[in-house]
Amino acid sequence: MNKFKAIVQETYVDQVKSKSFIILLLLPIILIALSGIVGFISYQNASSSGNDDTDKIALIADNGIKQSIVQKDGNSIDSSIKTEQQAKQKLKNDDIYGYVKVIKNNGKYTAKYIGNETIDSGVRDDVMQSLSLHQNQLNLSNSNLTSEQIKKLSNKPLFDIHVKKQSNDNKSDDNVIKMSSLQVLIYILYFFLFIYSSITASVISKEKGSKLIEIIFSSTTSTNYFIGKITGIVLMMLTQFAAYLIMFFGSYFFLSQADFSKDFISENSNYVHQIIDNLVNINLVFIIFGLLLGIILAATAGSLVSRREDANKAGQPVFMLVVILFVLSMIFQNNSNNIIPKILSYFPLSSYFFMPIRMINNQANIYEGLISLVILIAFIFGLTYFISKVYKGLMLQNNNGGWFHNLIKGVKYR
């Protein structure tokens, strides 16, 4: 047990302390920081532009109308201008781009705009909406109606809604969430499989044929060595995964509070929560065991190279498998009920890609998912047991006959 712990610790510590792991860990922080800086600068520029008087108009009206409009468009209206003479002077000096003068004549409100540029459509609509309300109040006061008659005029129609089928908008939202969940799932699997298959194959192949590996196998079993290496790399992957989760939730919390992004985050928080719900369930278990299988296959591939110098190409078989699964998952993500993804969703070398996709698309139920997961776990245990028993032969033979030939020779090694 102590030797097993030593192998795990040595593998984990060496990899976590490596420059490549530190760069990989810091890269998202750098990208998030750069995105935050760009967003903050953009927000500051927008705020500065919004506070520039040349982007404002003046409003000449009685206090009631002016107050109701300023409440809606305070950033677009220069409230310091009180008279038309001031507005004309400001317009002449290009301090404002125009002004609106509201006049009441013979029981009717009229808004007149004078400016060097066309008035903003949003401001114009708010002015007209406010004037319509004041015009209605003026009409009622001039009509000499009784309170009972005014009450009847204020009656509004009712609209009673009973929805029996999901609306197209809701279906569209669900499709957006599903597609986003699929994209996140596929890229998580692809990213971690690609990175860790490379790391695992490189770690194993660098010890291939060295005197060190002979010393290790003279003091411990191939099973301890193989499973210890796998455990150390899995712990490294979990460390990176945990760090990314902390970064994600920390960034999400920061962006939800920051002035330049909180409105956007608030509007889309429901989508984010539903995407997370689609991942943090049985699909997360598929992701974990899929990554574990990829690491085991990469460790096997790393032991099949002929020399230590071949470490860079050790993970090629696993690379090809990951790329093929990635491409197929992208092709079938919208048609995952086809016969090909159905078969691949139960085949252990591909089920961790395709069964979660089918479940997100509601084309496979939880029981089908559990069956596929059991097959995957059983395959991983069986493969781990078999490889651990022949791993000494795989690591100690140095033939140049290729991966398949080396696998046969390693299995036959005694």
TrEMBL record:
Pfam families, A to Z: ABC2_membrane_3
InterPro entries named among the record's database cross-references: ABC-2_transporter_component, ABC2_TM
Source superkingdom: Bacteria
Segments passing through the bilayer: 21-43, 184-205, 226-254, 284-305, 317-333, 369-388
Membrane topology field: Multi-pass membrane protein
Domain ABC-2 type transporter transmembrane: 19-385
Chief location category: membrane
Keywords: Cell membrane, Membrane, Transmembrane, Transmembrane helix
Compartments in which it is found: Cell membrane
PANTHER family xref list: MEMBRANE COMPONENT OF ABC TRANSPORTER YHHJ-RELATED, MULTIDRUG ABC TRANSPORTER PERMEASE YBHS-RELATED
Name of the molecule in the record: ABC transporter permease
Organism encoding this protein: Apilactobacillus timberlakei
